[in-house]
Every structure is written in C-alpha cells, then in structure tokens.
Design brief:
Number of helices: 19
Number of strands: 15
Strand order of the largest sheet: 3-2-1-4-5-7-12
Shape: globular
Structural class: alpha/beta
CATH architecture of the largest domain: 3-Layer(aba) Sandwich
CATH topology of the largest domain: Rossmann fold
Length: 500
C-alpha cells in the first residue's frame, strides 16, 4: 500500500470512509446481484455515510415494503448486527429506469438533486435474449436518464456506471479504455422508441453485426453515452467479468442468482445436465462479487477526489494474471466437492462431457437430456403429476446455446488500473476495502460457494445433508450398474453380429 503521507491531508482524499462521510448516495439496480452487495458494503463499512437512496419499482408492493424485503435476506445479517442504525439510512425512491425521467415524481427528483453526491448506476437487463428495443430502452436510454438526473445534482462528486467486460468482444485482449462505439447511441434510442417491434426484430442481426447479443451491444452503447457526458460530470466506468458468490464479505459463499454459469453448474450437480457445449481449456474469468464491489467503491473515491476529473476512468474487475482457472479446473474442483456438499436429491449421478464440437453436443444433448426428459415426463403424467423435465431440458439447451460464444472463446481483460487502486488505501481502509486476492484459495472458495448455493439459492437445510449424501451414493452405484449393462449390451451385440 502507498505511504499515507503521500496523499493530501484532507480526510476525504486520504480515506474512503472520509470521502463518503456525510454524503448521500443514489443507487439504481439496488435489487440486483451486485447492487445488493454494494449497498450492504456501503452501509456496513462507511458508518458516517449519508442516506442511501435506491430506485425501486412499486410492482405489487410499495417501495418501503420492498426495502424491508431486501434487507430481510441473510446478506444484511452482519450489518444489522454490527450497525443496526445503518439500515435506517436506506431510503426507497419510487421509479423505473425504463421510463423517461426515471419515472420520478417532482418531489423525489428535487430531493435527489438537492442531497445526492455519488451516483452508482447499476440497473441493467443482463438477459442475452432481450429484444433490441427493450435492451436499448433499459441499458442505453436508462443510462441517459440517470445521467440527466446526475447533471442536475448540486453536489455531485462522481457518477459510476456499471458496465461489463464483455462489451468489446471484437478484441482478444481488452484493455481498460474505451473502444469505438458499435453505433450512435442517440440514433439507437430513437430507433428503439419509434420502430415497429417486428421490423426491428428483422433488422436486429444486421444492426448487431459482430456483437453476439443485444446485451453486449447495448452496454457498449451505454459506455459511449457516459463518455460523451464526462466533460460535464466526473465519470467512472466499471467493467466486471462474470460475477459469482462472495469470497469474504460480509461472509463467504453468499449469492442469490442462477444467471450465467451458476445455473448450469447447479443443473449439472442435480444430474439434469450431462453434456456442455464449451471448451475445457477456456479460462473462466469469474470475479467474486465482493471484490468487484470494493473496486467499484475505490474507483468512485478516486475519481471523486481528483482535482480535474474531465476524462472518464475505465476499470475492469477481472481475474487476469491472478487466480484464473480453466473450465476443466472448475469442473474438476466441483466434482471433487460434490460428494461432501450435494445440492439436493439428484435425479441421476452428476457426470458428463464437455465438447466444443456442435454435432457431438447436439447428439449427446438428445441422448442424455431430451430423451430422458421425455421418458421421465411420461412417468410423471402416468403418476398424475405435471411434466416439467422436458421444459427444463429445453431451457438448459437454450441457455448453453446463448452462453456458447462466451465459453467457446477466450479473452484477456487487463486489470492493472483496477489493481492499482489498492495502492492509494491508508490506515484502516487497507483492511476494509482491499481485494484480499492473495488470500483466495480455490478449493476453499468453491467449497464455500457450494455451501452457499445449498443455503441461499436452493434453500436446503443442513439436516438433509447426510440423507442427500446417501442418495448420491445410491445414484452412483445405479449409474455404474446401468453403464455396465449398456456396455455389456453393446459388446454382446458386436459379438453376436460380427464374431459368433
């Protein structure tokens, strides 16, 4: 860490906690995976922070009920125990990122303009199959509306935009800088607002060009929207890779999303997925969400204390040159741990193959996913129950197809600037906001991740663990017997057909 004496003497420039002292924060996407961890960290580690305003949709519950539901999850147990008063600083603001003006009332807009000093814009759709119109309205126009609000704020210190490392996939080595825009963001917003849905769906492949989906395309546009306003407001772009469960804070193993590889890994451990369309040697750039949040907070502090913050700062939260794992290594670790921490009563023993050959994948998916799903659904119908396995198998197939571009190819996401942020920490901030990346043990991390998946995602009780282990052992012997009989049948056929 840098010598504290090298920093300016003002408290907010020397300490992260000093920077947030008395400052109110506005967060969009607070109910998302990263958004939850971000606000928990701010409330727990910045005791003198002002109010934390979060944009929430009303839906079937009013905003205050939604905040109550949000803070009722285990993620907030530590802060409620250590700083129970901090929860009172969490204030809901009714609105919607898809609406003009964020759907804010005049009263709430005036409140935010008057009080907020730091904006974290993390709201986005992370679905790969969203229509181009919806992805543009939410990810691009929503960013524009948030920036318009930020430009009105009287005491704004920094605007932080959460992007993705995967919005510049035309490069094999992605650096912490802006790349050419995929299109003009103003034109795309106009097209999304005024073009008939069917027409735009037909034109989407041509508009996307080399971009694999509407998510990466729209996030790339949003980055340039932020950059085009960075001469008016101090701006930061944060690009995380694939966010996974926490490594340390507020406790190891917390996560509550099935998105991305998590859903596929859980499905595999449950014996539902037995073949994956990917490349075993691909480096899996996974980033623990608490490390990404620390980097985001440090980036906000760094930009917010610069004397001339006229140029947008770009940081990538990746495992580049540190703790990177291949897909094969991830699978091997998972298989070694599943005996101790099964994720439930599996339908079949977890096993399978990884292939980057589309023909082999398609045939294997039919044999090991679709046909067994049809058979088990038939049994469910006979038993008078609702068939669900074919529907699940179809979703898995579509999910693997959607992810194929990301798990068949490999990119290196430079992270030197993000790692350098740690060097500016002083005093107690070193322990509070460091990445602690050197303390990560892969086996321990994935063990905590499996325990967390059982507890927070699948809601499995510890009381059922021993029973599930016995069930897994039975499935193993059943699979061994079935495979032996199948192999014997093939040998018998070859013998009677070609030898006898």
């Amino acid at each position: 860490m840098a010598n504290c004496e090298s920093h300016q003497s003002e408290e907010e420039k020397r300490y992260v906690t000093g920077f947030f002292k008395g400052k109110s924060v506005f967060v969009t996407g607070a109910t998302g995976f990263m958004g939850k961890v971000l606000i928990e960290k701010l409330l727990r580690s910045c005791p003198d922070i002002g109010n934390v305003y979060v944009l929430v949709r009303e839906k079937r519950k009013n905003p205050y009920e939604r905040i109550k539901d949000l803070t009722a999850i285990p993620l907030f147990d530590v802060v409620k125990k250590q700083r129970p008063e901090a929860i009172e600083k969490l204030k809901p603001v009714k609105g919607n990122v898809t609406e003009l003006g964020l759907g804010l009332s005049d009263e709430d807009r005036d409140l935010l303009v008057r009080e907020v000093s730091v904006v974290f814009h993390a709201a986005a759709s992370v679905r790969f199959d969203d229509s181009l119109a919806y992805a543009t309205i939410l990810n691009v126009r929503g960013t524009r509306e948030t920036i318009n609000l930020a430009m009105e704020m009287k005491n704004l210190k920094v605007f932080v935009h959460v992007s993705t490392a995967y919005c510049n996939l035309h490069e094999t080595v992605v650096e912490e800088k802006l790349y050419p825009a995929p299109a003009d963001w103003r034109e795309m917003i106009s097209i999304a607002e005024n073009t008939e849905d069917l027409t735009l769906r037909i034109l989407t492949p041509k508009i996307l060009g080399t971009y694999p989906n509407t998510y990466t395309f729209s996030k790339g546009l949003a980055e340039h929207l932020v950059n085009d306003h960075s001469d008016k407001i101090p701006s930061v772009i944060i690009r995380p890779t694939i966010l996974i469960s926490t490594t340390k804070e507020p406790f190891p193993g917390w996560g509550d999303t099935f998105n991305g590889p998590v859903g596929l890994l859980i499905a595999a451990s449950m014996g539902v997925v037995h073949v994956s369309y990917s490349r075993r040697s691909c480096v899996a750039d996974y980033m623990p969400v608490d490390i990404a949040v620390n980097a985001t907070i440090l980036a906000a502090w760094k930009k917010g204390t610069e004397s001339s913050p006229k140029e947008v700062s770009v940081y990538q939260c990746s495992s580049h040159k540190h703790q990177a794992l291949t897909l094969k290594e991830v699978v091997d670790i998972g298989q070694s741990l599943i005996w101790d921490y099964p994720l439930g009563y599996c339908l079949w023993y977890p096993s399978g193959v990884i292939t980057d050959n589309w023909f082999i994948y398609f045939i294997a998916a039919m044999m090991f996913h679709i046909i067994p799903a049809v058979f088990f659904d038939l049994l469910l119908r006979i038993a008078g129950k609702k068939p669900i396995l074919l529907k699940i198998a179809r979703r898995i197939y579509l999910a693997n197809t959607a992810l194929s571009h990301f798990i068949l190819n490999e990119w290196k996401f430079s992270n030197e600037k993000a790692l350098e942020l740690e060097k500016y920490l002083c005093g107690s901030d070193i322990q509070t906001f460091s990445y602690h990346k050197d303390e990560i043990d892969h086996m321990k991390f994935f063990r905590n991740g499996l325990v967390g998946a059982r507890k927070y995602l699948l809601k499995r009780s510890e009381d059922s663990l021993e029973s599930e282990r016995r069930h897994l052992k039975r499935m193993y012997y059943l699979a061994l017997l079935t495979n032996s009989l199948f192999a014997g049948l093939i040998l018998w056929y070859i013998y009677t057909k070609f030898i006898a």
